[in-house]
Amino acid sequence: MRRHRRSQHGGTALPAALVALVVAASFAAALADLARTEVILARYRQVAAAALAAADACLAAVVAAMPPGWDFDPLLAGPDGVTGTGDDGMLGAPAGCTATARRPPGAATPARVAVTVDANAAGGRRRLDAIIGRTRPPGVPAIVWLGGSPTAGAVRGTLDVDGSDAADPSAAPSAMVAAPSDPLTLDAWLAGEGAHVTTHSTSPPLTAPSPPFSGLLARLTAAGEVTTLPPAGTLPGGLARAHGDLVVDTPLSGAGLLFVDGVLDIRSSFDFTGVVVAVGGVRVQAGGSLTVAGAVWAGTGALTIDGVAWLRASRTAVEGVDGLLPLPRRPVLLGVKDLA
Amino acid sequence: MMNERGIGIVELLVGTLLALLVLGALTAAVAVGARLVVAGGARGEAEDTAQLAVEAFTFDGRRAGYDPSAAGIEAIVQARPDGVTFGADLDGDGVVDATSEEQTAYACSAANQRLSRIIGRQSLPLADGVTACALRFFDTTGTAMAVPAAGLGTADRARIRAVALDLTLVPTALHGATARTVLVALRSGG
User: Fold this and answer.
1) Mind telling me how many Å the CA of B66 is from chain A's nearest CA?
2) HEC letters along chain A
3) What is the overall mean pLDDT for chain B?
4) What does the angle CA A134 – CA A140 – CA A144 come to, to the nearest 5 degrees?
5) In terms of CB atoms within 10 Å, which end of chain B has fewer, N or C?
6) Is B51 in CB contact (< 8 Å) with chain A?
């Protein structure tokens, strides 16, 4: 007879292990879902931040491209310069964003414009409204304001520039030059002139659009011109215009605003307090000297110095001229409101 | 012949003991897992709360001083170490309506451990469990301005060019803190 041994099957180890596995899996799933949610939120925040940075960059580019001036009517007329057409308020903007301008509410002065910027970046989109006005100080914070890139070797004589204002030592120093060139080009030009250019307390060169010569001439013409200016140092001075080129071959002194339609050709000594504007450029011949307390705005042909030039900042002189004839001002951001 | 032997008391006790050990291990595993999930959730919520608070602060700080009608409104109406009030003429009517979003205030309450955003008479808690909350103000040169407890005067407030919010919160059930610092430059003033 065979004996059958019945072995016993069963037990709780396997079910217990399975239950433990299920519990652990559910907790792991919950943690994974939590982590996934946080990653998604972080990605959305990154996209929103990128879009906001793009909108801010677009706004900065739009403001930088606005020309110096007195009001914003030309801007509101659009690219065709005619008010009442379909492109009114359209502004040039970098790729990835659009910008439109309109009149803001309230009085016409102080001059300002409302700009709406729409920017897309990294899958996100931001929209903002900005108010752009004009700076309080007239002109640019530079002693020499050029209408074009400076030419290498333009200074073969001596150019001495002092950016500090003797009447206001606490004021921020002026830049030696402002021109429609990128900062690296201006730095390279300045370095290339070597020992011919000496600067004292000047801030780095500025990038700025060309001076609005035609607008300034129109306002000067409307204000009336005088041909005799008071001597240098007499503030605020007067207003004068030279039709065509002005050749200074005898010692000359003046104060106020001198607007030269052509080239200011200096062969003797020329001492001026205020703003010297030469649409055709300024040329100091060998043996000539130019001394200016205030600012020099030179157009195409820019600045050529074979003689000696001493230029120093004087906010009082420039503001004195501004009191006689409003000078152009740069655009500046006055406020921002995020829309979406 | 069948073996009809039953379960003795010793076997019962050993079996019970083993079952208890297994159940105990399972319970411990479940408890650890649950705590982990709760802590993870609390940490995520704390980070989100802090981030939303600084985003709201940034939003209001950026538009402070918005003045389309050039009425000359104040960008910062009040500046204290534990609070700041921003003003903006959002509708362009030349007036800041203190009962609307045109005037928003941020208040750090050490007693309540809370950062609140206040619009008119409405106070919205932005973050609870706040252990540290302070505001700093910077002038044009980027230098931090000394702020008395009563706040900056009108002339000093006009010099403010940036505002920083330092926020630290420790939610309940957590030991580690969540900290954020944001520096917002005022876009107004020209």
Assistant:
1) 5
2) CCCCCCCCCCCCHHHHHHHHHHHHHHHHHHHHHHHHHHHHHHHHHHHHHHHHHHHHHHHHHHHHHCCCECCCHHHHCCCCCCCCCCCCCEECCCCCEEEEEECCCCCCCCCEEEEEEEEEECCEEEEEEEEEEECCCCECCEEEEECCCCCCCCECCEEEEECCCCCCCCCCCCEEEEECCCHHHHHHHHHHCHHHEEEECCECCEECCCCCHHHHHHHHHHHCCCCCCCCCCCCCCEEEEECCCEEECCCEEEEEEEEECCEEEECCEEEEEEEEEECCEEEECCCCEEEEEEEEEECCCCEEECCEEEEECCHHHHHHHHHHCCCCECEEEEEEEECC
3) 90
4) 160
5) N
6) yes
**Residue A338 CA: distances (Å) to CA of A97, A128, A161, B148:** 15, 4, 43, 31
Do the bridges between strand A158-162 and strand B83-87 make them parallel or antiparallel, or are there none, so unpaired?
Answer: unpaired
Using one digit for the tens of pLDDT, what is the confidence trace for A227-265?
A: 677 777 777 788 999 999 999 999 999 999 999 999 999
- ipTM here: 0.83
What is the Cα–Cα distance from B135 to B84, expressed in whole angstroms?
8
Neighbours of B99 (CB within 10 A): 10
Nearest CA in chain B to A26: B33
Backbone angles phi, psi at B174, to 5 degrees: -125, 155
Reading the block at residue B147, the tokens are 């702020």
CA distance A264 to chain B (A): 35
Q: Give the nearest partner residue to B37 out of A31, A37, A112, using CB atoms.
A: A31
- Report the relative pairing of strands A206-207 and A246-248 from DSSP bridges: unpaired
Among partner residues B22, B90, B189, which is closest to A16 by beta-carbon distance? B22
Closest CA to A128 of B57, B118, B187, B76: B187
**Measured between CB atoms, which of A105, A332, A333 is closest to B68?**
A105
Asked if B190 lies within 8 A of A136 by C-beta distance, the reply is yes
Tens of pLDDT, residue by residue over A153-167, are 899 999 999 998 888
* Local confidence band at B1 (pLDDT 50, 70, 90 cut-offs): very low
Tokens 């030419």 sit on residue: A151
Q: Return the closest-CA partner of residue A180 out of A132, A138, A133, A140.
A: A140
Chain A partners within 8 Å of B190 (Cβ): 133, 135-136, 332-334
B48 at the A interface (CB within 8 A)? Answer: yes
Neighbours of A289 (CB within 10 A): 21
